[in-house]
Structure formats: structure tokens, C-alpha cells
């Protein structure tokens, strides 16, 4: 009996120790997570990338003092000007240098100051970076290349600082295109992009740099590329978007729920290669699809999603696929509220599609 009591006591002590240990792990996890805005999450990811890989480099226009949006603040002080450095105001040169650096086995993290300025680098990205592996039969590549650039509306940017050119790069085999919706997503997806064995164009929604705040783990972590995330389950209609548009779409979903409409909201996260399976499974369940993005309607990536769903889910669709996007005009300054796909525009389209 005494032995039984001793065994019971021992088990009790062991269980208590496990509880204490588990509680300490929980507290440790909590202590490693703190409210962070999007540009700070990007900054954390860049610090980790440089710290964990001695062959990683960050460069671009004005990155040494932190850049226009301060995403590279503190990097030069910590890692030195040999690994974090300014470049001439020449986007074609930035991209060309990045390709060469990556081809030598380095991690080249290039910044294009605004996505609107990426067009001079288009030839280097499309004709060189995207085809480097293919043209050599995989004998050499520039897979260590990541090009970061702020994109989308900012509230006062006009036609030279507010464009969303993601669809141009989605048309190019050999590239990956990634767009996060929030700080936590931005950090994990950027680290995955930097460590991916393929060149990645990483668009950062500048509207959210300071506005978006959420709990972000301070440690090193990665989120999978090419996996969409269902951030709101529903049964009546599927909504698909990316980047800053997700918060607008979520507001529309909330309003729709007051009218008894159940919306399933999906963040695509990676546009190329995009997660067709998740979107198709959702549409086969709901029978309806709405896509929203800031880029112009014609030729936007929403058209590719619409075509794929019409091809694979035609017999399950209860209504035509709806697209709420930017207008087919240059991005305006004074008329930005008319141009943008707003909550009310999306809500009207939800109701029209469900009641079709």
C-alpha cells in the first residue's frame, strides 16, 4: 500500500511538473508575440534573413537610412554597409545586379522603391530572372532572388505611386508572386520568399504599413507559399482577394451577414502559383464567386481566377462570377474614392450574386 502511495505521489509530482513546464512554454510563446505593424514586421524579417544567412544582402534606393517607408531601418547599422547598401536610381541596374548576385549563390533582396517604378526593371525580371534556370537546363539559376516593392493605393499617391502591377508578373513562367494581407503574414511569407529556390516578386501593400497592427511572433518562422487561407468560412458565396483588399472584403462580409448571407473569404496570398484547389473546393460548396482587387478590371489577375473557375466549376455555379476591381483608367488622385473597390461596391455585388 505504501508503495502504491509512493507511485501515486510520484505520478502526481510528474504531472505537476509537466503542467508547470507547459505553462512556462505558453508564457514563453506569449512573451515572444507582440503587437507589430506591417513595416516593422517586414523589418524583423529582413533582420532575421541577414542574421541567419551570411550570404544575404539588402540593397536598393535609400535603404541604408531605412527607405521611404522605413522597412530597412537599422539594418545597415547592424550588418554593415557591405551587406546593406544604396544603389543608383536605376531600377534596371538594381534588378540586373540582383540577378548576378543571386546567380553566384547569394540571397539577393532587392528593393524597388515603389511598384510604379518597377517597369524599367521589367526586362531584367521577365527575360533574365524568370528564364535563368530554364535556359540552362537547370545547370545554373538565380533562385536566391527576392524583389520587394510597395504597391497599391496609399490615399494620396496619384497615378505614379499607387499602381498594382501584379498581373504583369503573373503572366511570366519562372517567377513567384506573393502579396501579404497583414503584419504576421508579411513576416512569414517574406522569409519563405527569401529562402525559396525560385525568384520571387514580393508586393507589400503600402496602405497597411502603419495602419495594420496585429500580434506577430518575434522569432523566426515561415508561412507556406502557394497555399491560400480560408480566413472566414461560409456557405452562400466565396470571396477571393489579396493584400490590403482583404480588410475591405471582410467588412463587406460582416455587413452581408446581417442580411443572412454567409460569405466564405479566402486570402490567396500567393498569386503565382495560385492555390486553385482551395478556391475550387470553396466554389463547389457555395456555388458563387466574387473576386476583388485594386488593379484595373481588364487583364487583372481576377480574370484568370474567373476563367479557371468557369472551366472547372461550371456545373456548380449558381450565378456568373463577379469581379469588383479598379477602373480601366490611370490611377486618379482626386477621384480615388470612385476608383477603388470599396466595401459598399463589394456588398452590392454580394447581394446581386446571391440573389441572381
Automatic annotation (TrEMBL):
It is an enzyme of class 1 (oxidoreductase). Residues 36-211 form the Transketolase-like pyrimidine-binding domain. GO terms for cellular component: mitochondrial matrix. It holds the Pfam family Transket_pyr. Its EC number is 1.2.4.4. GO terms for biological process: branched-chain amino acid catabolic process; response to nutrient. Keywords: Mitochondrion, Oxidoreductase, Transit peptide. Its cofactor is thiamine diphosphate. GO terms for molecular function: branched-chain 2-oxo acid dehydrogenase activity. It is found in: Mitochondrion matrix. It catalyses: N(6)-[(R)-lipoyl]-L-lysyl-[protein] + 3-methyl-2-oxobutanoate + H(+) = N(6)-[(R)-S(8)-2-methylpropanoyldihydrolipoyl]-L-lysyl-[protein] + CO2. Heterotetramer of alpha and beta chains. This is 3-methyl-2-oxobutanoate dehydrogenase (2-methylpropanoyl-transferring).
Amino acid at each position: 500500500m505504501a508503495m502504491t502511495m509512493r507511485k501515486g505521489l510520484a505520478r502526481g509530482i510528474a504531472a505537476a511538473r509537466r503542467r508547470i513546464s507547459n505553462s512556462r512554454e505558453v508564457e514563453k510563446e506569449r512573451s515572444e508575440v507582440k503587437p507589430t505593424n506591417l513595416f516593422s514586421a517586414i523589418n524583423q524579417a529582413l533582420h532575421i534573413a541577414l542574421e541567419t544567412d551570411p550570404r544575404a544582402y539588402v540593397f536598393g534606393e535609400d535603404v541604408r537610412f531605412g527607405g521611404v517607408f522605413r522597412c530597412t531601418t537599422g539594418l545597415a547599422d547592424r550588418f554593415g554597409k557591405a551587406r546593406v547598401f544604396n544603389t543608383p536610381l536605376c531600377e534596371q541596374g538594381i534588378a540586373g545586379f540582383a540577378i548576378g548576385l543571386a546567380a553566384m549563390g547569394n540571397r539577393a533582396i532587392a528593393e524597388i522603391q515603389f511598384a510604379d517604378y518597377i517597369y524599367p526593371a521589367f526586362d531584367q525580371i521577365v527575360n533574365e530572372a524568370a528564364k535563368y534556370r530554364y535556359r540552362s537546363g537547370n545547370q545554373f539559376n538565380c533562385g536566391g532572388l527576392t524583389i520587394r516593392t510597395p504597391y497599391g493605393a496609399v490615399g494620396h499617391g496619384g497615378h505614379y505611386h499607387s499602381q498594382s502591377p501584379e498581373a504583369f508578373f503573373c503572366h511570366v513562367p519562372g517567377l513567384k508572386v506573393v502579396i501579404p494581407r497583414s503584419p504576421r503574414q508579411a513576416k512569414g511569407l517574406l522569409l519563405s520568399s527569401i529562402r525559396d529556390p525560385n525568384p520571387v516578386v514580393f508586393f507589400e501593400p503600402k496602405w497597411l504599413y502603419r495602419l495594420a497592427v496585429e500580434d506577430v511572433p518575434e522569432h523566426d518562422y515561415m508561412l507556406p507559399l502557394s497555399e491560400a487561407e480560408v480566413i472566414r468560412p461560409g456557405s452562400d458565396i466565396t470571396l477571393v482577394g489579396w493584400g490590403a483588399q482583404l480588410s475591405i472584403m471582410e467588412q463587406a462580409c460582416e455587413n452581408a451577414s446581417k442580411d443572412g448571407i454567409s460569405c466564405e473569404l479566402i486570402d490567396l496570398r500567393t498569386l503565382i502559383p495560385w492555390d486553385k484547389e482551395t478556391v475550387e473546393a470553396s466554389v463547389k460548396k457555395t456555388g458563387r464567386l466574387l473576386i476583388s482587387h485594386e488593379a484595373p478590371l481588364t487583364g487583372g489577375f481576377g480574370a484568370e481566377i474567373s476563367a479557371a473557375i468557369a472551366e472547372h466549376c461550371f456545373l456548380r455555379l449558381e450565378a456568373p462570377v463577379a469581379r469588383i476591381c479598379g477602373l480601366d483608367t490611370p490611377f486618379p488622385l482626386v477621384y480615388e474614392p470612385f476608383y477603388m473597390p470599396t466595401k459598399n461596391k463589394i456588398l452590392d455585388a454580394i447581394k446581386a450574386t446571391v440573389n441572381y
